Amino acid sequence: MIVAIDGPAGAGKSTVARALAERLGFRYLDTGAMYRAVTWLAMQRGLDLGNAKVLADLARTEPVTFDEDDRVWIAGTDVTSLIRRENIDRMVPVVARHEPVREIMRERQRQLGRDGNVVIEGRDIGTVVAPKAEVKVYLTADRSIRAQRRMAERPGIGADALATDLRKRDSSDADRMQPAEDAHEIDTTNLKVEDVVEQIEALVRERTAV
Ligand code: DC
């Protein structure tokens, strides 16, 4: 079974998806981490982030992998914490915008999601990567709350810079951020993580009972 969790930055996807996967005993796949890792490597190698072909070649020849502790690897480097830095936050939408890059990433995501039960989080999972996912959820939250959550994750950044970054990322991610028609939308603005996880778990149980 595939549980697809999509939504904008700061809507709570990672926290919810991880907790849900643990609770259900499903694997967890963070597709944002894959775009982040390719972005990190492209910057490390000084590649032109505007060149779709060069980046697609990079994504093809240097696949992102996850180890059993869910650490993120690319080109022999553990990039788990390196990809959570502000410079990556800022540049990843530039890389993720290229369709040839997305095609390679999506194919890899489909492979990684193929066997067994998995919770996959991203932006286009319910719509493009796994349109047949048995359960699709689209998380949202007010932008001010999303900015606050990002601030807790990136204590070094000022509130204004963070709000601006979030706005920019929202508009650049917007075309990939449409909810699937059959997605269950959950507004997490006033909800606790456990409540969101419980709601999704109920959807999974309903689906398993069918
Ligand atoms: O969820 P995140 O912040 O780690 O995602 C990082 C970036 O990758 C974000 O700008 C959107 C992009 N992304 C995407 O385009 N498609 C996905 N399936 C996942 C992430």
How is this fold's topology laid out?
Blueprint: E1 2-6, H1 13-24, E2 27-30, H2 31-44, H3 52-61, E3 65-66, E4 72-74, E5 77-78, H4 86-96, H5 99-112, E6 118-122, H6 125-129, E7 135-140, H7 143-153, H8 159-173, E8 184-187, H9 193-209
Parallel strand pairs: 1-6, 1-7, 2-6, 7-8
Antiparallel strand pairs: 3-4, 4-5
Could you explain the architecture of this structure?
With 210 residues, this protein is an alpha/beta fold. The protein has 2 domains: 1-26 and 117-210, Rossmann fold (3-Layer(aba) Sandwich), CATH 3.40.50.300; 31-114, P-loop containing nucleotide triphosphate hydrolases (Rossmann fold). Helices cover 52% and strands 15% of the residues. It is built from 9 helices and 8 strands. It has helices at residues 13-24, 31-44, 52-61, 86-96, 99-112, 125-129, 143-153, 159-173, 193-209; strands spanning 2-6, 27-30, 65-66, 72-74, 77-78, 118-122, 135-140, 184-187. A 5-stranded parallel beta sheet has the order 2-6-1-7-8. A 3-stranded antiparallel beta sheet has the order 3-4-5, with helices on one face. The longest helix is centred in the last third of the chain and has 17 residues, at 193-209. Bound molecules: 2'-deoxycytidine-5'-monophosphate.
